[in-house]
Amino acid sequence: MSASDVDRPPAQRPELDDLAVLNALAEPRRIELLRLLTDQQLCTRDLVAATGMAQPLVSHHLRVLRQALLVDSTVCANLRVYRVRADTLRVLGSRLDQMAARAAVTSGVQPC
């Protein structure tokens, strides 16, 4: 959720789709883009230069990451600047922690 999403009523906030997030993270090039964006905000041109990927491919992966709510962007001086949405990573981490806690309980039980 972005800062503007926090101000919206809960019914109007975008819902995090775990499957969309995990599918987005399943592509190694998208992980590479996320790693770069974790440390700094970058425009498409910078991401192309840093990764060596073609611009249309970078734009495609950024669109998938944006749709999964993993990145968002703002326009600054005629450039679209991308950044990681830490809130999405926190929610995903929390959900995975909850699953791990439940799995720890069941993994200690003998099946037979």
What does this structure look like?
The structure is a single chain. This protein is an alpha+beta fold and about 110 residues long. Helices cover about 60% and strands about 10% of the residues. The protein has six helices and three strands. It has helices spanning about 5, 20-25, 30-40, 45-50, 55-65, 85-105, and strands spanning about 40-45, 70-75, 80-85. The protein has a three-stranded antiparallel sheet with strand order 1-3-2. The radius of gyration is 17 Å and the shape is elongated. The N and C termini lie far apart (about 45 Å).
Give a brief outline of the structure.
By secondary structure, the protein is of the alpha+beta class. The chain has six helices and three strands.
Q: How much strand content do the residues show?
A: 5-15%
Note the main sheet. Answer: 3 strands, antiparallel
Task: Give, in spatial order, the strands making up the sheet with the most strands.
Answer: 1-3-2
Strand and helix order: HHHEHHEEH
- The total strand number stands at 3
- Report the principal-axis shape: elongated
- The count of helical stretches stands at 6
The helicity comes to 55-70%
Summing up helix and strand content along with how strands pair, one would put the structural category as alpha+beta
Termini distance?
44 Å
Overall mean pLDDT stands at: 87
